[in-house]
Amino acid sequence: MDFDWTMALGSFLVAIVVGLTGMGGGALMTPMLVTFFGVSPLAAVSSDLVAAAVMKPVGSAVHYRQGTINMRLVAWLCVGSVPAAFSGVLVARALGDGQEVQHFIEIAMGAALLMAAAGLVVKGILARRGDGPGESSEVTVRPVPTVLVGAVGGLIVGITSVGSGSLIIVALLALYPTLKANQLVGTDLLQAVPLVMSAALGHVLFGDFRMEVTAALLVGSVPGVYLGSRISSRARSGLIRPALAFVLVASSLKMFGVPLEALAWVLVGLAAASVVTWRVLRRRSTVVPHAEAREPVRSGR
User: Fold this and answer.
1) pLDDT band for position 301 (50/70/90)?
2) What's the helix, strand, coil split of the chain in %, to 5?
3) What are the φ/ψ torsions at residue 136 (nearest 5 degrees)?
4) CA-CA distance, 191 to 203, in Å (whole number)?
5) Residue-wise DSSP of 154-206
6) What is the pLDDT of residue 241?
7) CA of 292: how far to CAs of 112, 127, 281, 297, in Å?
8) In terms of pLDDT, which residue wins out, 150 or 93?
9) What does pTM read for this prediction?
10) What is the residue extent of each domain of the chain?
11) Burial of 144 by CB count in 10 Å (0-12 exposed, 13-18 middle, 19+ buried)?
């Protein structure tokens, strides 16, 4: 068995993103295997899911120790996602290559990811102005829509390996907009553990699992997701939200089939625009208090 160290390095970088944002594993890892390393799509999906079954518990354990997980949300999501994920593997096998189905799912997910990124930006702007909903550790769990989210996400994960983080975290953002960013990441990572394990078992039995690919992914992804999770579990929402939006945009563009060179330039432009915007907002937030401090206090006579 030949070990590919460049594949391990790539999985390390992707896993940092997964640990930091709770998403991007299937949306980034699987395309990386197919595009850069020539792995067949079915083998990439199967090997990625088996590796994720080991990687996800590492990241979720860090968040569990930090107390940044909503266990009730995890439980209701798993009620729908675990059986649906295994069923998704059987659906994929029944559909054959399923190119048209997977293409439709990718386009739909790309649109959803872009809307989620826009929602994060709007939420951040409203939070700065004090007009948006505040973040809270306690949310009222809605069982029926949460189970449905888990079922739909699990089915898509079983077919494409994409969605355990990206799709479900989008739905969680819509259902629970006041959930803290680090709790959103921690909850999504933990719910993905049984979901991915169920899908991975199906792919080991019926897919195209390749041990040499999975081994390289594990060597890079385990330390990567641990590092990213340590950062996100301790970081403030102001750091996680831009990173999450950045990954959402990257994943959505990949779903739309944007070429890698164009994708790289778009992401560089977004990163530069984000830095400029951050500096402008920071300057405004410091100028306004100084101006108020210089304003003389007038006493009434």
Assistant:
1) very low
2) 80, 0, 20
3) -145, 150
4) 19
5) HHHHHHHS--TTHHHHHHHHHH-TTB-HHHHHHHHHHHHHHHHHHHHHHHHHH
6) 66
7) 42, 21, 17, 10
8) 150
9) 0.66
10) 5-257, 261-288
11) exposed
